Amino acid sequence: MKITPKNNSVIIENISDFDPTHTFMCGQCFRWDKEDDGSYTGIAFSKPVNISCEKNTLVIKNITPDEFNSQWKYYLDLETDYNTIKNFLSFDQNVKTAMDFGWGIKILNQEIFECLISFIISTQNAIPRIKKIVSTLSQMYGKKLEFGGKTYYAFPSIDELSGVTEDDLAPLKAGYRAAYIVDAVNKIKSGEVILENLKNLSYTEAKKELMKIKGVGPKVADCVLLFSCCKKEAFPIDVWVKRTVQTLYLNENAKEKEISSFAAEHFGEFAGVAQQYLFYYARENKLGI
DNA sequence: TTGCAGGGGTCAA
DNA sequence: TTGACCCCTGCA
To answer: Which ranges of A61-196 does DSSP label H, i.e. alpha helix?
Structure first.
């Protein structure tokens, strides 16, 4: 990985296994949008940035080399060797097919609070609407940011959301999820749930901790652990993955518990990576519908 | 135009 | 284990 600063950008050469479209459109994040030129603009660490990747060269606009090294390298999971993971998982022909299709998906390491609130909002909801609600929440409570002549809003911090009520959140039209957001903010603010500790806990302990929050069940907890806490063994089971595993590996009556055990045994420490490829493949190809 | 089904689940009984 | 759930969107 060779890093070169240029104007307000950072150019990184010798990048492997990274495709921005597959990474940002595979459903793991909700704050990235495609530009007309094919690049992606998104917000993280209270900063809007623009990312493009041609061949093996990645260009990130609006950051410094220091910010790349301390934040974005990790956010984009560039230090994980995906070749090893792919080799590990390629014994499974279905995952191999899904990996060929969704080539270059990186499992992002997002900010935990944002990831948590976003996936609380995601329950029984469609992706465009999830994006809209997250965006409105940011506009209401987040910092105003400027980039490329446009206005963006950072995802609000815990302090910025501290004290919000269900009534305050009514403009989001998030429905019953508003109460869950309030509960999450309160439990984090009071120290009942400490997000910073999650990475240091075992997968099982961390999941238990997250599920203390209302609106956080097994699926949402697994998403938060996989997409923001480095727990690549987390295997979120949603309707798509459920249908896929039932069809390809088990039977149509298989329950979540059985699917979960199967994933842990079959895909092991990289179950979450397999899940994300299978999910993306299933959803894009409308498998099982 | 209206009505209905379903959406990356979770809660409570 | 099962139904209800807030609200929006897509589709007859």
So the answer is: 65-67, 73-75, 82-89, 93-101, 112-121, 127-141, 158-161, 177-189
Same domain, A131 and A195: yes
For the whole model, what pTM was predicted?
0.97
Q: Please name the residue that has the structure tokens 């030129």.
A: A37
Nucleotides, chain C, CB distance < 7 Å: 1, 5-9
What does DSSP assign to residue A6? E
Whole domain around residue A273: which residue ranges? Answer: 239-284
Q: Is residue A140 part of a domain?
A: yes
Tens digit of pLDDT for each residue in A83-99? 999 999 999 999 999 99
Rounded, the Å distance between the CA of A124 and C1' of C3 is 15
Give domain status of residue A88, yes or no. no
Catalytic residues of A: 219
Q: Find residue A109's DSSP bridge partners.
A: none
Distance from C-alpha of A217 to C-alpha of A123, rounded to nearest angstrom: 10
Tell me, yes or no, whether A210 and A129 share the same domain.
Answer: yes
The number of domains in chain A is 3
Strands (E), A80-192: 144-147, 150-153
If asked whether residues A216 and A147 sit together in one domain, one would say yes
Mean pLDDT confidence for A39-48: 98
